[in-house]
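Subject: Sanity check before I submit

Could someone independently write out the structure tokens for this chain? I want to compare against mine line by line before I put it in a report. The sequence has 485 residues.
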Amino acid sequence: VCLILSLTEAQSASNDKTPRERHSEDYCAMYDICGKRSDGKVVNCPYGSPAVKPDDLLSSKIQSLCPTITGNVCCSEAQFETLRQQVQQAIPFLVGCPACLRNFLNLFCELTCSPNQSLFINVTSVDKVGGNLTVGGIDYFVSDTFGEGLYDSCKDVKFGSANTRAMDLLGARAKNVKEWFTFIGKKATPGGLGSPYAIAFQPNATKSSGMEPMNVSAYSCGDISLGCSCGDCPSSSVCSSSSSTTTQKRDSCSLKIGNLMVKCVDLILTVLYIILICVLLGWGLYHRKRERKPAYRTKSVSNVISGGVLYSRNQEKDENLPMHQIIEDVSQNRNEVRLSPVQGYMSNFYRKYGSYVARNPIMVLATSLVIVILLCLGLIRLKVETRPEKLWVGPGSKAAEEKQFFDSHLAPFYRIEQLILGTVPDHVNSTSSRIVSEDNIRFLFEVQKKVDAIRANYSGLMVSLQDICMKPLDKDCATQSILQV
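---
Independent answer below. Compare away.
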């Protein structure tokens, strides 16, 4: 966060010892970089100059990050590169809500590169760094409309990796835009958190000064083009209307049975279920009662006896008939049944197919084996995919292209590594001991010390956790554990 605040806007150097004040369109209050503090933060030149026309390459770079700025600009290439490097630190926190991210970037894009910078930037103090005059403090006039819009779009954005609000990390848990701007504009001590120069955010400017607040359009988190999820923007009309509609639907019909409130849908389903059970039980009892009647039993037995006698006679008859006569009888019986065309075709096909399989078993098995082998040839190119993003989107999809653009132009996403510990069950009682005990807490302290002390050799360099971890608040790694409670 502190690096975000070290944005560099400077102005072309002059031999004057005090900055020349001029507030008009197409004029800069600061241009270029005039020095570097002892902690590495660059600071700007406090001299005004006309806005300059960037070359095509720089213009395209500025457009990719600051689409609202066109034509002349008030930032050099070095300033813009510093701006891009610093805002990359904030993007992982705000990327979940495009509207918030866009407003946040616009705030610093206008501060750094706007061609009308002098209309809302006023250099109030200068410092001497390395023998050069540099900006020590500025007034940044920002309209209440943009400020409130910026805060409202970002106040509920969640940073999923830390399971907390992004405002807790980027704004020191600011409750309103004034507190957030105060945190952003804080001048950092050497090596500390904050901006390389003091930024005093002002809502209004006097008419005599010729200045006016910066008032670019602020996107709402419920904006259709840059909409955020309901988790990051619960105040969105889409989220509120959908939740109210859902509530109305859920509470649209209910009945009170005694002291119990029952929804109509649940009651109807219960009644239908009871009716279905009664019908099934009644059907079963009816048939069981019918089977117990003497007439039904006599009829069933006579059918079985007559069927057995008929089968016995037919069997004796079939044994005395030649094969071709049996086939003719089968065909005659089939014709008497009067099968449909489809049934007749399927009957003939499977009868012929069964006869062929019975006469040529080796040929059928060999052919089946060859077909299976041919269908399995694709397994030669089988490759186990271990990258989760490739399991969800295709390499040529829009999402893959956007991710590639994001990774090449902005900061990569942070990956959370988790270490989960548990207690071992007792062999005697087969129960686990309490996780919260003095011995376990002491053990957790030892584990965290060992994790923090891990070192690894990477390309000949010893890398520690401090070199690769996320540091949202200056020098400390973002580590979450029960030891922080």
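---
OP: Matches mine. For the report I'm noting this point. The CA atoms of residues 11 and 31 lie 2 Å apart.
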